[in-house]
Amino acid sequence: MPSIFAKTCIQNHKHWALTAVFLWCSVVCVASALYVTVGINRGDSIALAIATIVISCAMLRNQLPAIPLARENKILLCSVIASDVILAFVVWLTRSDAAMQSPWEHVHPWFFVMYACVTALLAAGVWKKNLSLLALGALITHVGLFYSIALLAFRFGYAYDPVIHQAAENYVALHGKILPLQPFYIGQYAIVPFFHFVTSAPVWLVDRLLVPILASISIPILGYVGFVHGWRIPRDRAMFATLCLLMYPAAEFTFTVPHNLTILYAMWWVLLLPLALRSTNGRAAITALSLAATITHPLIGVPLFIASITAIIIQKFNRRMIAIVGAFTIGASLFCMLAFYSMRHGASPS
Fold it and tell me: What is the CB neighbour count within 10 angstroms for residue 11?
């Protein structure tokens, strides 16, 4: 007899990614609710983590697809993984505490040549090939090197904004919440202390790892699932299409601030939208995703939430006027959020 949690999930292998996104966003929302009400603390965080593990096992049971370890090009894909590890180690050995405008200023020009060669090897390894664990691992490793360059190159972190947010997160870890409550950045100020309490890792380490690691793992996986099952790209082309996501300017995913975390949520939304609109649980997943984005950074999250509601209504009623009204509402929400932020802070959000 399936559990009550399993009944609520999408009983199809190709929808397990939507279940995973829904679970992540649920944790963000519940942690944020704790932050706003009683303040986030170690006991509640551990209880939430245990509940999430139990519910995840129930919801994802029998959903995960059977993926072969390797299909073809084993030596080529292993060479890609080894090359990425070596490149990461070289950058790590030469890390610096000097002030630079970009982490790419830190690396030698030969790094770009080597990275381009490894990218070409990976492209050859996944071109017209179906999914395998080895190919997925090579994609995650390659994307991870790209998004983790600031982590590797800078001894004390990159950019000034993360330092401010880390100070706020340290305060939250000590006191539970920041008073008076503000409607900004709650999603990050709740999830970073949550992982700090659950793992006992320092707040600064959780903060630095959050977006780069989350992006490195999620974009290849959700990219493949979204391309194959949502955007209808053939399976033997989807791995290469996922690799092409590297062409997206990745500065947002190299360090953690609420804006960058919300941009990552927006990318998930775009990748999964066509798949999500085909089922009730999928629509719940993108709604939860847009809600998590709103909690983290309202300037991006509110338009994303309106877009989610508009897309769901269009899917149900298929009226052109709904799309027009939705587009105007999204535009109006941007102006309203900018005006609200300016009145409260007298500056543009970051």
Answer: 12
